[in-house]
Design a protein that fits this description.
alpha+beta; 3-stranded antiparallel sheet; 21 helices; 9 strands; globular; iron ion binding; metal-binding; Cyt_P450
């Protein structure tokens, strides 16, 4: 009997030892680290909804202000958080061949559409798909997309013009409808007008798919930290209806275009061409590949771009001097908004850049090593840090953008930081709203154009002002990944007087 009890106790202790041994990794390497909670790591506060992910990331970053890196744990996954901009630049550009991948969260067996998207792909698959998609974002294509965006922006402005004087708007809701319509037409060739047709299926499915908080955030952590358990339990990231909807809509779009020989200047057409004329016979694009790329374009452009618009509208509302100055720049144009006039607006560029600094699209971007790597010491207090193949690194955008060494008075909204004479002083590894290096966001030009256009059209027609519902300052929802408050962001659109 005692032997059985001893064996059980030994087995439990051995299992605990195996499960917790990982938490000694950064200590053994001599890396400054934050003591984790077993099985939750350093982000239990977010899992328990005590703090936002952004707040926790900044706290980890600030824990060792004199170190170039900090050791963390996401559940049982060791993470090296990079604090030094020169090291960020080295990892993402100079040594990109060692860190060419994001963490592949999704697997073919459980979520094939998400597993096949550009963000999740690795190696030659990533190279092939990126080279296929890159022509979608050239200047020539941007001009074509601009025409489609302009139609959506006209619908947006006309809707609020018809809504009466001084309409109160929850701008995140309004902007998700705008970004939905832009992606629907630019990627799928579908017209929605989601402000008028508020319950159109494309918008509702997109909103469900892109909602990244609460249960879905826990699922994401599960996929990234214990994928085998998620697969064993057959836990899907998307609901069955969302997966089926996007598969069916792409299937029907492909059928009609092939049958009717329809060609349209959008992403679906580009992917059809790539399928028809593959650059590499070993990487023949399937219909599922097309669906996967269209879906990630939608997911990336729906919530994150709308969030960027929301934060910018908020900052303009509570910083009327900046709004007035930007409106003056807009008024100096001929009145007609063109692709060329947008490119010429230098103050608009400063305002948007500062908003993206103050309100990061994501708290961090990640990289994963594909071979061993050593971080060499640059200071007598350091020693070489050996990183095994598969080590995960985080580049904490939300914390770098708030570091007062690089951005004095970092909580102040100050577009002058990005004036031409000042921008050159900002280290390349500090300001990374879309990531850095070859693995940076492929659609950043598309997103920036989309934001700039709607802001110009808004300020041409309205003054954005705070109202009784406008929270100052904003208090982020602890369950949200994008830093937005639970009650939304409210402003009033006050029609401008026509002289």
């Amino acid at each position: 009997m005692y032997l059985i009890l001893f064996a059980i106790a030994f087995a439990i202790l051995f299992a605990l030892f195996k499960l917790t041994r990982v938490y000694s990794q950064w200590r053994d390497k001599g890396v400054p680290y934050i003591k984790p909670i077993y099985f939750l790591g350093n982000f239990g506060g977010n899992v328990l909804r005590l703090k936002s992910f952004e707040t926790l990331t900044r706290e980890c970053y600030n824990a060792f202000p004199n170190s170039r890196y900090v050791g963390l744990y996401q559940f049982r996954q060791p993470i090296l958080l990079i604090r030094d901009p020169e090291l960020v630049k080295q990892i993402t550009i100079k040594d990109f061949d060692t860190f060419p991948e994001h963490v592949s969260v999704f697997t073919m067996g459980l979520e094939p559409l998400l597993a096949k998207n550009l963000f999740n792909l690795t190696g030659s698959d990533w190279h092939e798909v990126r080279s296929t998609l890159s022509p979608s974002f050239t200047s020539r294509k941007m001009k074509v997309f601009f025409t489609l965006m302009a139609e959506c922006s006209d619908q947006f402005i006309n809707y609020f013009k018809e809504s009466g004087d001084g309409v109160q708007v929850e701008v995140m809701d309004a902007f998700t409808r705008y970004t939905n319509d832009v992606i629907a037409t630019c990627a799928f060739g579908i017209t929605c007008n989601s402000l008028k047709n508020r319950d159109n299926e494309f918008y509702l499915m997109g909103k469900d798919a892109s909602r990244f908080s609460g249960v879905k955030m826990l699922k994401f952590f599960g996929y990234s930290s214990c994928p085998s358990i998620m697969k064993l339990l057959n836990i899907k990231f998307f609901g069955v209806d969302v997966d089926a909807y996007f598969r069916n809509i792409i299937k029907e779009t492909l059928r009609i275009r092939r049958q009717e020989k329809i060609e349209r200047p959008d992403m679906i057409n580009l992917l059809i061409e790539a399928q028809r004329n593959p650059k590499n016979a070993e990487h023949q694009m399937t219909d599922e590949d097309i669906t996967a790329q269209a879906l990630i374009f939608f997911l990336a452009g729906f919530d994150t771009v709308a969030s960027a618009m929301t934060f910018l509208a908020y900052e303009l509302a509570i910083n009327p001097d900046v709004q007035r100055k930007l409106h003056e720049e807009i008024c100096r144009t001929s009145g007609e908004v063109t692709y060329e006039t947008i490119k010429s607006m230098s103050y608009l560029e400063c305002v948007l850049s500062e908003s993206l600094r103050l309100h990061s699209n994501v708290p961090f971007v990640d990289r994963r090593s594909t071979k061993p790597y050593t971080i060499e010491p640059v200071d007598p207090s350091e020693k070489p840090v050996y990183l095994e193949k598969g080590t995960v690194l985080w580049l904490p955008t939300c914390a770098l953008h708030y570091d007062e060494r690089y951005f004095p008075n970092p909580k102040k909204f100050d577009p002058e930081r990005f004036r031409e004479e000042n921008r050159s002083k900002i280290h390349q590894g500090v300001y990374i709203p879309f990531g850095s290096g070859p693995r940076a966001c492929i659609a950043s030009r598309f997103a920036l154009l989309e934001v700039k256009l709607i802001v110009i059209r808004l300020l041409q027609n309205f003054e954005i002002v705070p109202n009784a519902k406008t929270a100052i300052p904003l208090i982020p929802d602890k369950t949200s990944f994008n830093g937005l408050p639970a009650d939304g962001v409210w402003v009033t659109l006050k029609p401008r007087r026509v002289n």
